[in-house]
Automatic annotation (TrEMBL):
The gene is ascB. GO terms for cellular component: cytosol. This is 6-phospho-beta-glucosidase. PROSITE patterns: GLYCOSYL_HYDROL_F1_1, GLYCOSYL_HYDROL_F1_2. GO terms for molecular function: beta-glucosidase activity. PANTHER family: 6-PHOSPHO-BETA-GLUCOSIDASE ASCB-RELATED (PTHR10353:SF122), GLYCOSYL HYDROLASE (PTHR10353). Belongs to the glycosyl hydrolase 1 family. Keywords: Glycosidase, Hydrolase. One of its GO terms (biological process) is carbohydrate catabolic process. The active site is at E370.
Length: 473
């Protein structure tokens, strides 16, 4: 069968990578605002080096993003021109609750997203909202220690309740936490964790994991109660780990690596920690910080669908740490695949394999909410980019996606490519790593006009959507 007629084609953005306006409209400081560009970025992202406020010796790309805050009408009009059925975007927590623990929400921030959603609906675009996409008010980091504190569950419940009540007539598709499995490696960026010298990180990280999983279940519960026709999904950084060889030790190592990531969605889809995780905790002498009603909340509030990002697969070799590090996920070499400019393997077939594995595991509808090629583009004097390499990448992946649906029977709700307009790379802070169908005149040094222009891929993706994925040439 071909893709369903209500298949949700579109694109995906994140507030911390596109929005800017970091000190406007009553917004408070967030962790994204203090992720620097350059060599210090990765240590800050991981929580190894504390950076609690901006300083004069660094540039902070998220503070400007690509100025979606002021240009959202123009950008959404272009998405409408491409025929988007949905737009995945996120909400900056500190735009709604500037400090995270404020008594009342910031009306100007609430109104901004209301305007954004209204603009989407004007073009027939259904918003798909990620509640938390690598975004936490810095006050919650400095005052409570980020998600290491259970206090954040209650503050998160207040935040999401505000969103659901305000936007219940505008948004019916929600994701709780972006790439939830990345919080164990990008600890500050994803969970607001900063480590002191000599601290045992394991219990701190997994306390935070538990708090986030419980908060996600609460959000699911509240969303279903406040917006009865809503659908709530989890969101995983996906792309399976292959064993380097058929040596059973490599196969076992790959299984273990995959489980490190599936443990999050196992809880969100099945409602409890899997046995393999509990045994790992036992070996570590670690006990999750269960409160009285946590087990019930997790069990009774599982997600409606599983969404995920897919950029690449990885390879695991027993007794090896891996040779490459892509978005903080290590991999051994894969002699059968080429790599893109930032080192990730190009593996369209891996998308089909990953889709089948996730569906076999959960038997829930899937949603591909990120897939794209980051590449340096060279525009002509008008801003036009002949980006056949991006078209080829997307074509190959969409073909394999369709095979998973049409030949394997995987139920798929939609596909939102990352990012339909150039934006700041979360991994490197670069603009040079461009994903968009729309070129933005802005560079790694924070210079340019911010002018938008259509790339060749703009017209190609418009045709893909018009044909519901049938015309990929």
């Amino acid at each position: 069968m071909p893709l369903s007629q209500d298949f949700l084609w579109g694109g995906a953005l994140a507030a911390n990578q596109c929005e800017g306006g970091w000190n406007e409209g009553g917004r408070g400081l967030s962790n994204a605002d203090v992720l620097p560009y350059g060599k210090d970025r990765l240590p800050v992202v991981k929580g190894d080096v504390p950076m609690l406020k901006p300083d004069s010796s660094h540039r902070y790309p998220a503070q400007t993003g690509v100025d979606f805050y002021h240009r959202y009408q123009e950008d959404i009009r272009l998405f409408g021109e491409m025929g988007f059925k949905t737009l995945r975007l996120s909400i900056a927590w500190s735009r709604i609750y500037p400090n995270g623990d404020d008594a009342r929400p910031n009306e100007e921030g609430l109104r901004f997203y209301e305007n954004v959603f209204a603009e989407c609906h004007r073009y027939g675009i259904e918003p798909l909202v990620t509640i938390t996409h690598y975004d936490i008010p810095m006050h919650l980091v400095t005052e409570y220690g980020g998600w290491r504190s259970r206090k954040l569950i209650e503050l998160y419940k207040r935040f999401v309740s505000t969103l659901f009540h305000r936007y219940k007539n505008m948004v019916k598709y929600w994701l709780t936490f972006n790439e939830i499995n990345i919080m164990t490696s990008a600890c500050f960026m994803a969970a607001g964790l900063i480590f002191q010298e000599g601290e045992d990180r394991y219990p701190i990280v997994y306390d935070a994991v538990h708090h986030v999983l419980v908060a996600s279940a609460w959000a699911t519960k509240l969303c279903h109660e406040i917006i009865p026709d809503s659908r709530v999904g989890c969101m995983l950084n996906a792309g399976i780990f292959y064993p380097a060889t058929c040596n059973p030790l490599d196969v076992l190592a790959a299984q273990g690596e995959n489980r490190k990531h599936y443990m999050f969605s196992d809880v969100q889809v099945r409602g409890s920690y899997p046995a393999y995780v509990l045994k790992e905790f036992e070996r570590r002498g670690y006990n999750p910080p269960f409160a009285e009603d946590d087990r019930q909340i997790l069990q009774e509030n599982t997600v409606d669908f599983v969404s995920f990002s897919y950029y690449s697969t990885r390879v695991v070799e027993a007794n090896s740490d891996g040779k490459y590090d892509s978005n903080l996920l290590k991999s051994a070499d894969n002699p059968y695949l080429e790599r893109e400019p930032w080192g990730r393997f190009l593996d369209p077939v891996g998308l089909r394999i990953t889709m089948n594995e996730i569906y076999d595991r959960y038997q829930k509808p899937l949603f591909i909410v990120e897939n794209g090629l980051g590449a340096p583009d060279t525009p002509d004097e008008t801003g036009y980019v002949e980006d056949d390499y991006r078209i080829n990448y997307l074509r190959d992946h969409i073909r394999e996606m369709k095979k998973a649906v049409e030949l394997d029977g995987v139920p798929l709700m939609g596909y939102t490519c990352w990012g339909p307009i150039d934006l700041v790379s979360v991994a490197t802070g670069e603009m040079r790593k461009r994903y968009g169908f729309i070129y933005v005149d802005w560079d790694d040094e924070g210079k340019g006009s911010m002018k938008r222009s259509r790339k060749k891929s703009f017209g190609w993706y418009k045709k893909v959507i018009e044909s519901n994925g049938e015309d990929l040439d």
